[in-house]
Specification:
This protein is α/β, with parallel strands linked by helices. The chain folds into 2 domains: about 45 residues, no CATH class; about 240 residues, TIM Barrel (Alpha-Beta Barrel). The protein contains 12 helices and 14 strands. The strands form 3 sheets. Strands 5, 6, 7, 8, 9, 10, 11, 12, 13 and 14 form a 10-stranded mixed beta sheet that branches. It has a two-stranded antiparallel ribbon with strand order 1-2. The longest helix is centred in the first third of the chain and has 22 residues.
C-alpha cells in the first residue's frame, strides 16, 4: 500500500516477469556494431563485382552455342511465326544450290542467299514499307531488272539477226482472261500488269511460273485529266514530289517480281521535267527499268533515264490503236520492217482477245521471216 501511494501519478504498476539485458551488454555500442556489419556486407558485394568476371551475378546459366542450327526456344519460335504459317525448319545439312535451266538460253543458279517470299520474289531485293514490300537494289548490287529479266540473246549476241519485242499491257484486272493469256502467249512476250487487280499477286506469280518477265503499269496524268483518268493513285503534275512518291510506293507494293515499269497514259506528266525527274530518280535508285509506251512525242523519259542510269526503251508502235485483225497485222508488218532496218523494234498491244489472238498467230510465222522474238529486257539498256 505504501508503495502504491509513493508511485508517480499516471504510471501504471508493472506486473509480471521483465527481461533485462545483462549489465555488460547495456554498455556496448549496438548501433555502431550494426552499421559496421552492414558496411562489411556492402563492401563484399562491391568486391565481388570488381574482382569476379560474372555478368550474370551468380544466376544459373544454360549455355547454347551460337552456331547451333536448332531453335531451342519454342515460345520465341511461335511468337516470331506469323499466324497461319508454319515455323521455318532449319536443317543441319548444308544447303545445296538449286540449278534451273531456262529453255537453253541460260542457267540460273539460286543459292542460299537468294531466299524468296511466298510469291517467289527475292527477299534480298525487297524493302518493307507501310504499304508493303517494294523493290530495291540488293546488298550485293544486284538489281530487280537483272534478277527478274528473262534470259535471252541481245543485239550484241544476235549475230546481226533482227530482233523484235512485244509487250501485252492491261493484264491483271480480269483474272480468268489474264491466266488464259499467260497460258497461250509465247514465253518471250513481255507482260504488263495494271496495279488494281484483286488477284494481282496470284496472276503475276502465274506469269513468273510460265516463264514470262513482266512490267508494272504506272498511271500518269494525261492532258485531259480528270476527264481521262488512269485510276487511283495517279501521278500528277503540280503536286509535291513527296506526294507523288507516296503514290508511287503504294503502286509498287501491289505486287513484286517486275523488272520494270511502263506508263499508263501520262502525256502531261512525262512532259513535265519537275514532276517526272523525281520518279525517274527513284527508278534509278532502285534498279528498275522503264519503258515509254511511245504515245507522246513530248515525253522527257529518255533524257531523264540517261541522267539517272535507268535501263530504258521506247516502243516503236502501238499495235492495236485500231483493234481489228487487219489493222493489227498492218502494224505488225511495220514492226517487222523497222526491225530489219534498225536491227530491233518494240511493239505494245492491249490485252484484248482480238489483239492477243492476232499476235499469237503472227509470232508463229516469225521464224520464217528471219526475225527473232525476244523479251523486252533484251532490248533495254542503260543509255550513255
Amino acid at each position: 500500500m505504501a508503495d502504491d501511494l509513493g508511485s508517480p501519478l499516471g504510471r501504471k504498476k508493472r506486473t509480471g516477469f521483465v527481461l533485462r539485458a545483462p549489465h555488460g551488454l547495456r554498455r556496448l555500442p549496438l548501433g555502431r556494431i550494426f552499421f559496421g556489419l552492414a558496411g562489411l556486407i556492402i563492401a563484399g558485394f562491391v568486391a565481388r563485382i570488381l574482382l569476379v568476371d560474372d555478368p550474370m551475378g551468380g544466376q544459373p546459366v544454360i549455355e547454347v552455342p551460337i552456331g547451333s542450327t536448332i531453335n531451342s526456344n519454342p515460345v520465341a519460335r511461335q511468337i516470331s511465326t506469323p499466324p497461319g504459317s508454319s515455323p521455318m525448319i532449319v536443317s543441319d545439312q548444308p544447303v545445296e544450290p538449286e540449278v534451273i535451266v531456262v529453255d537453253g538460253a541460260g542457267v540460273e543458279i539460286e543459292t542460299a542467299s537468294e531466299r524468296r517470299d511466298e510469291q517467289g520474289n527475292l527477299i534480298e531485293l525487297s524493302e518493307e514499307t507501310r504499304n508493303g514490300p517494294i523493290p530495291r537494289i540488293g546488298p550485293n548490287g544486284k538489281t530487280p531488272f537483272e534478277a527478274y529479266s528473262r534470259p535471252s540473246i541481245t543485239p550484241q549476241s544476235a549475230a546481226g539477226r533482227p530482233l523484235v519485242a512485244i509487250v501485252v499491257s492491261g493484264l491483271g484486272i480480269n483474272e480468268s482472261a489474264t491466266l488464259e493469256a499467260i497460258a497461250t502467249l509465247p514465253d518471250n512476250i513481255t507482260l504488263a500488269f495494271a496495279p488494281y487487280g484483286r488477284s494481282l499477286q496470284r496472276t503475276t506469280a502465274a506469269a513468273r511460273s510460265g516463264g514470262h518477265e513482266y512490267l508494272l503499269e504506272i498511271p500518269m496524268e494525261p492532258f485531259d485529266y480528270p476527264n481521262s483518268d488512269p485510276g487511283p493513285h495517279t501521278l500528277l503534275t503540280g503536286v509535291t514530289a513527296r506526294k507523288n512518291l507516296d503514290r508511287l510506293f503504294w503502286l509498287m507494293a501491289r505486287t513484286g517480281g517486275y523488272m520494270g515499269m511502263v506508263n499508263n497514259m501520262g502525256a502531261r506528266f512525262t512532259a513535265s521535267a519537275n514532276d517526272m525527274a523525281p520518279f525517274m530518280e527513284e527508278l534509278g535508285t532502285r534498279g528498275i527499268a522503264y519503258l515509254d509506251d511511245g504515245s507522246s512525242n513530248r515525253s522527257l523519259s529518255r533524257q531523264l533515264a540517261i541522267a539517272n542510269r535507268v535501263p530504258f526503251a521506247r516502243a516503236s508502235f502501238v499495235l492495236d490503236q485500231n483493234p481489228s485483225r487487219s489493222a493489227i497485222l498492218d502494224q505488225l508488218q511495220s514492226l517487222l520492217e523497222t526491225a530489219r532496218q534498225e536491227g530491233q523494234a518494240i511493239g505494245i498491244v492491249s490485252a484484248l482477245p482480238i489483239s492477243i489472238n492476232t499476235v499469237i498467230s503472227w509470232v508463229a510465222r516469225l521464224e520464217d521471216e528471219g526475225v527473232e522474238l525476244v523479251p523486252l529486257s533484251a532490248l533495254m539498256k542503260v543509255i550513255k
